[in-house]
Predict the 3D structure of the following.
Amino acid sequence: MSIVAQEQAWCASTPKRTSPDDPHGSGLKSVGSALDVLECFATDGELGVSDIARRLGVAKSTAHRLLQTLASRGFVEQDAQGQYRLGIHLYELGALALARNELRHVALPFLRQLASVTGLTVNMAVPDGADIVFVERIENSDGLRILGHFGRRLPAHTTSSGKAIAAWNHELDTARRRAGFPPRVSKTVRAEPDWDRCLDAVRRVGYAVSHSESFDGAPSVAVPIMLRRQAVASVSVFGPTETIEPQVDRLVPVLVAASRRIARAHGG
């Protein structure tokens, strides 16, 4: 499976966000419909009016009005061929959200130090629903970009970060169980008993390992960032099998030290 196909696979297997029916009329429903349009671009770079209408199950005229409204505010933009893509204003808002994430801001110097010490790709993840989102990624020092922009959001059961957080985060654990365990690659957790065993093992040793669960042949090691006895994030390293597997015993203490420094710096 190619990386692009894998990126689409997580979008297909991750439950779509839903909200209760609007009790106050059609105004908020229209907002929800506009957000549904934006969600369509999670798997495709460019879409036409017909594509959006088909995916949302609405008339083309309705899809066109929604797209035009979003385009007028810079959330989507239209090219010369009439196709739509996400607009630059979304990037601006996303960059602001990331810059204002206090935990990421506190963690960044420690993550950079970890990347320098290990020479590996370093990730920091936070829970969101049944998934984890990598809010920071520092690529390995030799310039080999294994992940790039792919895999920023992944189902928790497919990653060492998700397991490391869920072992001490009841909300993530419960959300993942409700969403199920859809397979991603060859060794992805696929059933609740396997998930139970994974979390028990993480609690016993204090860290999580993932191998061929998100990407074939690319393992990762993660430890939780604990604040007030709850895992609120994780820090992990990711790289080729021949680099990670022989070094797990050396990497874990380095990750634990970084996690504790981040927690202390954040006031935990």
Observations:
- The radius of gyration is 20 Å.
- The chain is about 50% helix and 15% strand.
- Residues 248-265 form the longest helix (18 residues).
- The beta strands are 76-78, 84-86, 121-128, 131-138, 153-155, 208-210, 220-227, 230-238.
